């Protein structure tokens, strides 16, 4: 306790030096927290765009389907599959889909289209698709109409109420053809999807492809990505061949690689920031050691043990780091909170480019405990490492040389 009290008093003998050091750590923690929040926020939004607008966190599929997406690689879910899924409390939602391709035609215009058979209420709970209807109405249960992407509607010169003709190949080579009234248009966030998608009520889609009760996927939703990683190995083990469970990471490996690559780049930037903070702390400690060299010599000469003196100086360094880290943590809360609730819009060519990739043109921020904890831990560990410098110097200290200066 005496060592702690002595170290604390020593810090405030030179308030200016102490405050400068604390301020460097304070702003370092804020900047690194803001950087980490921006990084994680961007990744979370990318994952949300994939997970909540299309794929879900996981999907149950025929094990042949993802490599060969044909209507013949579908499956019929039975009661045992649903019983298996019900055992997992972490699975919050199951959404059935039937997906394939067809030609969409109106008058003299024809385009290739992705046909998505959905249960309207379940799909709305997953993707909030009804909120993206720009014209007309959303599908109702057992609806015999379709809703289509705005881009596809413009290509075909369709309006709400027109009849869309679909031509394709059904289950086991059966011809698939049908006429469906257009109930509405959807403005999908993904431009390519917007130009090709046709949503149809699931039973109507199964009838169109002559694939009664068949599904291409059963979408599984969980709380978050961490929960998915926890449940995925168990689900893969419990759901046997010819079915399998595939995660969004397996479905979109390019995006996962992009995230991992960006993490590496961001880590380099953070290391540079930490080095700047570290040199600020190190410089202050070395300046303190030089200024107090005579003082240290006197204290050792009158009988103070070098180990005890070194301990006091080490505690001083740790206290500076602790105060800087704690104040930086407190200061980072309102800064990150502001940007979390007010994402930064990206305008101009950059915003257009981001939209063309299918993402919203904003810089998003995350509000996660790990964003703050990791920055605190990194800066504090660096301070502990720097505290070893005065420890070594004082253990090798020659008081005679110090008293001569």
Terminus-to-terminus distance: 32 Å
Rg over alpha carbons: 31 Å
Strand order of the largest sheet: 2-3-8-5-7-6
Q: How helical, in percent, are the residues? A: 55-70%
What is the number of helical segments per DSSP (H or I, 4+ residues)?
16
| Number of β-strand runs | 12
* Uncertain stretches of 5 or more adjacent residues: none
Query: What is the total number of structural domains?
Result: 2
Which word captures the global form? elongated
What percentage of the residues does DSSP assign to strands (E)?
A: 15-25%
Structural class: alpha+beta
Describe this structure in words.
The chain is an alpha+beta fold and 405 residues long. The chain has 2 domains: 2-50 and 255-404, no CATH class; 58-221, no CATH class. It is 56% helix and 19% strand. The chain has 16 helices and 12 strands. The protein has helices at 2-11, 15-55, 79-86, 120-127, 150-156, 191-194, 202-208, 225-238, 248-251, 253-291, 293-301, 306-341, 348-356, 369-386, 388-395, 399-404, and strands spanning 58-62, 93-106, 109-118, 133-136, 146-149, 163-169, 175-186, 197-201, 217-221, 243-247, 344-345, 362-363. The protein has a 6-stranded mixed barrel. β2 (93-106) and β3 form a beta hairpin. α10 packs parallel to α14 and α12 (306-341) packs antiparallel against α15. The longest helix has 41 residues, at 15-55. The mean pLDDT is 84.
């Amino acid at each position: 306790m005496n060592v702690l009290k002595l170290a604390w008093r020593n810090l405030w003998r030179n308030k200016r030096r102490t405050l400068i050091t604390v301020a460097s750590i304070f702003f370092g923690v804020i900047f690194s927290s803001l950087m980490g929040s921006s990084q994680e926020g961007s990744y979370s939004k990318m994952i949300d765009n994939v997970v909540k607008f299309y794929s879900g966190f996981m999907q149950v599929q025929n094990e042949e389907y993802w490599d060969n997406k044909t209507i013949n690689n579908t499956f019929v879910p039975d009661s045992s599959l649903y019983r298996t899924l019900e055992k997992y409390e972490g699975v919050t939602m199951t959404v059935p889909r039937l997906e394939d391709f067809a030609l969409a035609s109106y008058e003299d215009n024809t385009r290739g289209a992705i046909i998505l058979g959905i249960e309207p209420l379940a799909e709305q709970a997953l993707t909030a698709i009804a909120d993206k209807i720009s014209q007309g109405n959303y599908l109702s249960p057992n609806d015999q109409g379709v809703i289509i992407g705005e881009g596809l509607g413009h290509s075909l010169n369709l309006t709400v109420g027109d009849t869309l003709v679909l031509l394709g190949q059904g289950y086991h080579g059966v011809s698939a053809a049908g006429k469906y009234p257009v109930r509405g248009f959807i403005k999908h966030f993904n431009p390519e999807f917007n130009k090709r998608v046709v949503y149809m009520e699931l039973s109507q889609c199964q009838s169109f492809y002559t694939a009664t009760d068949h599904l291409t996927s059963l979408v599984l939703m969980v709380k978050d990505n961490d929960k998915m990683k926890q449940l995925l190995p168990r689900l893969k083990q419990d759901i046997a061949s010819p079915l399998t469970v595939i995660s969004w990471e397996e479905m979109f490996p390019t995006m996962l690689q992009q995230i991992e690559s960006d993490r590496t780049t961001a880590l380099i930037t953070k290391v540079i920031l930490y080095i700047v903070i570290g040199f600020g702390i190190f410089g202050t400690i070395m300046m303190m050691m030089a200024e107090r060299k005579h003082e240290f010599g006197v204290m050792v000469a009158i009988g103070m043990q070098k180990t005890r003196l070194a301990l006091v100086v080490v505690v001083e360094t740790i206290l500076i780091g602790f105060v800087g880290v704690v104040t930086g943590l407190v200061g980072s809360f309102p800064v990150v909170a502001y940007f979390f609730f007010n994402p930064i819009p990206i305008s101009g060519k950059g915003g257009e480019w981001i939209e063309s990739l299918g993402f919203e043109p904003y810089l998003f921020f995350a509000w996660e405990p790990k964003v703050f904890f990791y920055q605190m831990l990194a800066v504090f560990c660096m301070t502990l490492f720097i505290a070893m410098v005065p420890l070594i110097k004082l253990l090798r200290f020659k008081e005679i040389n110090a008293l001569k200066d």
